[in-house]
Amino acid sequence: MKNLSGNTIQDRIIRLPQLVQRSGLARSTIYDRMNPKSPRYDETFPKKLNLGGSAVGWLESEVEQWLSSWAQQRS
Predict the structure, then answer these.
(1) Has residue 8 been placed in a domain?
(2) For 41, which DSSP code?
(3) Structural domain contains residue 51
(4) What one-character DSSP code corresponds to residue 38?
(5) Neighbouring residues of 4: CB distance < 8 A, sequence distance ≥ 6
(6) Residue 39 included in any domain
(7) 39: domain range?
(8) According to the model, what pLDDT value does residue 61 have?
(9) Number of domains present in the structure of the chain
(10) What's the gap between Cα 67 and its chain centre?
């Protein structure tokens, strides 16, 4: 898979600070997008991976794919 810049992505796990930086969304908005009870819920938002304890991450490829589709919808 390629990212928005056209570079090939390895399927690696990114953490919340990286997701905030890449998406431009606030931490609270990200959690709202994942919460089915929230009015901001987005079923297309990438699913989090539990890394152990309270640590979570997201697959970089899924994040990039979601960002691409989100950008296309806005155009």
Answers:
(1) no
(2) -
(3) yes
(4) S
(5) 64, 67, 68, 71
(6) yes
(7) 13-74
(8) 94
(9) 1
(10) 7
* Residue entry with tokens 């994040």: 63
| Within-domain flag for 34 | yes
pLDDT at 66: 94
The pTM of the full predicted model, rounded to 2 decimals, is: 0.80
pLDDT tens-place values along the chain, 75 residues long: 566 666 665 689 999 999 999 999 999 999 999 999 999 999 999 999 999 999 999 999 999 999 999 888 876
Sign (positive or negative) of CA dihedral 39, 72, 47, 15? negative
- Nearest 5°: the CA angle 75, 39, 14 is 65
Find out whether 71 and 7 touch, Cβ atoms under 8 Å: no
Per DSSP, 61 falls in state H
Neighbouring C-beta atoms of residue 75, cutoff 10 Å: 4
